[in-house]
Amino acid sequence: MPPAAERVPWRWLVAGRASRRLVLVVVFVALLLDNMLLTVVVPIVPTFLYTTEYEGTNSSVAPARTEPAPPALKAPPFSSMFSYFDNSTVTVSGSMSTVDLANGTESSHLPQPLTSSPPLLSRCPEGEEFLAKENIRVGLLFASKALVQLVINPSVGLLTNRIGYHIPMFIGFIIMFLSTVMFAFSGTYTLLFIARALQGIGSSFSSVAGLGMLASVYTDDFERGNAMGIALGGLALGVLIGAPFGSVMYAFVGKSSPFLVLAFLALLDGALQLCILQPSKISPESTKGTPVFTLLRDPYILVAAGALCFSNMGVAMLEPTLPIWMMQTMCSPKWQLGMAFLPASISYLIGTNLFGILANKMGRWLCSLIGMAVVGISLLCVPLAKNIYGLIGPNSGLGFAIGMVDSSMMPIMGYLVDLRHTSVYGNVYAIADVAFCMGFAIGPSTGGAIVRAIGFPWLMIIIGVINIAYAPLCWYLRNPPAKEEKIAILSQECPMQTKSYTTQKTLRDFPLTDDSDVEAENAE
């Protein structure tokens, strides 16, 4: 092979490592896999626990209730018989015995064809008390991922400031792969709980490092908004595929099959990261980032984080409670439990990609305000559904509105750091992920208890009203002020070499630190 041909893959690798688009692809795939694993368990866990624990303990009673009739007395479901009394043919039920036919009592069985098919309620799962308790257990299992992520996120933010984004991103892939394999072969509630908690650790590394990496390579506000919209599209696609994919694979193939497919996709993502992200490279930020506690004292960052938390808390409460509510009230089969989330996922995918661009034009604060109001209204409409088709409208509105909020608030987080703090993004996206995780921790853990205490409709009313009441606070993000120290420094035209930022023209070239006064005096 000529030397020039040998250099082609190496040149592609070097060019790929310098490409912002390929970094965006890696983050997109990582968020896709994380959220597929997040939602693929939603339709599987309730029915799996019901099958293994409730039906398993009652299997000895079931055969006595469902013992079939002796073969000699079986007949086709419906059969014709000629009546010599009035020279007519009548249809008789298959449940008629040969003794009835001999005695000529066919008239007493004539109404049976109308009720020969089992009624709808016979498909409903038994064990109302078990399902009520399962609301709480399933909610705690789902919340374990977010609770662990909540604890780990601040440490990951500090770690990315020290060693860069490459190594944490790869650590997240390894942990996510182990969690996926553990899900595939877990047969008890305890093992499923551990696998879910392990997923939280991997998700923390992947999401914080990924979003921080995007914010660092896309310094222009408009480009950053578009990149965040595309990355959140990966999140949306994972949510879109996860629940329907899990329900169909579980119903027709088996519990392990969806997780094994995700494990294979995770390996592909790891290979992509090895090629693109240089996970052995330590690249700390050249500028010291603003401490987490300083960012948490910023009221504008808190408003943005609250919007992320409460808007996602609604769908987090739906995940453990909606499938069980459908099993109780709609008698839904397994495959419908995941399909109920399909409208929300499709509309979320559309919302994140559409408003990644539109939000910058109409105002991200206005986009998030409208989104939170629509989230509240959609949640109020969910209990009105009488079947799975009645859930299409509310779930579609819910997904679209959450897409509006997420695609607006993620770029706002980076914008607020550039405007009011230091342009190092690990800590602020750790806060954003903490807010997201608080919604997915508080939602499932409290949702199951609230459903057991006052019912599913009241749960939807509570979280819907909270979203509508919080929406006006997004108005404060309309024109957040810059820090006074930065304005004073900029007025002195302090000559410093920094990254460019293009939203505020008077501030774009100077994302300075709080110690810039001392540096300016030394420069003079």
Automatic annotation (TrEMBL):
Q: Which InterPro entries match?
A: MFS, MFS_dom, MFS_trans_sf, MFS_Vesicular_Transporter, Tet-R_TetA/multi-R_MdtG-like
Gene3D superfamilies named in the record: MFS general substrate transporter like domains
List GO molecular-function terms, semicolon-separated. serotonin:sodium:chloride symporter activity; xenobiotic transmembrane transporter activity
Q: What is this protein called?
A: VMAT1 protein
Question: Which reaction equation describes what this protein catalyses?
Answer: serotonin(in) + 2 H(+)(out) = serotonin(out) + 2 H(+)(in); dopamine(in) + 2 H(+)(out) = dopamine(out) + 2 H(+)(in)
Q: Kindly list the residue ranges recorded as spanning the membrane.
A: 21-45, 171-195, 201-218, 230-253, 259-279, 300-318, 338-358, 365-385, 397-417, 424-443, 455-477
> Which Gene Ontology cellular-component terms appear in the entry?
synaptic vesicle membrane; terminal bouton
